């Protein structure tokens, strides 16, 4: 992609997503995530209605009556975008490619973060860490991230979510809010790594998908290719049995994904390429708030 073309696309995405983050998401984002980063402030005597989990047992033992820790909201948070750049994202049959949808969602979240004076960083991953952009503030930094999202060329087409989440846990020492953006086409189990990461950070998952992953059209013979392995095959979509098997596989896969997130205590949403991602993100933010 030529530089002038990239700049046009960056500007277009900035206009759309910055407007959304200012007019729609700023309040939602603040209430959904701003209270999650808490810093210790002081201790005071226990009062009726206080959460017993906040009791400071050392101080309580010293003064022979219950004291609780008082926390205050941190003035700024760090948000990280954990972005899947594997080959399967280069697919879309209706409105746009999955990669394009991920870019718009990531840009909207990034602008929402800087509206709240938070830092934002990015980890691009395939089956390895492709690129790490450390968290910073400011519009210039956001535009750099969007440009990378638009024009990044990964070295690998495969996916390893577990490895990317492990890298995140190792790399970031302070607690942050993490948005994991992927289609989750990964045959390996990543639930253990997700559980560990979510104990340290505040993890949120956003799945992007194309309708054809859910339901095949009846168009006769069709050549399909696995974008991550390059394996090609011909399938007969006129077969009702095949179409039903395809839908059943999708439902089973979604159920398994839902169980993974539930076990890990990670909030998540699923957004199709022809769907209004604004509504889906607002619902996700409201649920968290």
Automatic annotation (TrEMBL):
Domain called DUF58: residue spans: 42-250
Origin: domain of life: Bacteria
InterPro entries xrefs: DUF58, vWFA_dom_sf
Entries under PANTHER family matching the protein: BLL2464 PROTEIN (PTHR33608)
Name of protein: DUF58 domain-containing protein
Source organism of the structure: Prevotella illustrans
């Amino acid at each position: 992609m030529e530089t002038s073309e990239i700049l046009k696309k960056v500007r277009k995405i900035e206009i759309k997503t910055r407007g959304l983050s200012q007019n729609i998401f700023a309040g939602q984002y603040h209430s959904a995530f701003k209270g999650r980063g808490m810093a210790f402030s002081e201790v005071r005597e226990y009062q009726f209605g206080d959460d017993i989990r906040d009791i400071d047992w050392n101080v309580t033992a010293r003064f022979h009556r219950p004291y609780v820790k008082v926390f205050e909201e941190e003035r700024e948070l760090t948000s990280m975008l954990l972005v899947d750049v594997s080959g399967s994202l280069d697919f879309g049959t209706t409105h746009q490619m999955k990669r394009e949808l991920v870019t718009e969602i990531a840009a909207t979240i990034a602008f929402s973060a800087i509206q709240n004076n938070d830092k934002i960083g990015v980890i691009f991953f395939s089956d390895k860490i492709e690129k790490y952009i450390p968290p910073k503030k400011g519009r210039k930094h956001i535009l750099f991230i969007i440009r990378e999202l638009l024009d990044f060329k990964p070295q690998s087409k495969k996916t390893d979510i577990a490895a990317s989440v492990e890298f995140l846990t190792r790399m970031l020492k302070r607690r942050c809010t993490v948005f994991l953006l992927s289609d989750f086409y990964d045959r390996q189990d990543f639930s253990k790594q997700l559980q560990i990461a979510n104990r340290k950070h505040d993890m949120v998952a956003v799945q992007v998908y194309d309708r054809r992953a859910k339901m095949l059209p009846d168009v006769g013979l069709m050549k399909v290719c696995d974008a991550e392995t390059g394996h090609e095959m011909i399938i007969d979509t006129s077969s009702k049995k095949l179409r039903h098997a395809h839908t059943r596989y999708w439902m089973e896969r979604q159920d398994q994904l839902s169980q993974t997130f539930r076990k890990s205590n990670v909030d998540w949403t699923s957004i199709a390429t022809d769907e209004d991602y604004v509504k889906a993100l607002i619902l996700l933010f409201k649920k968290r708030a």
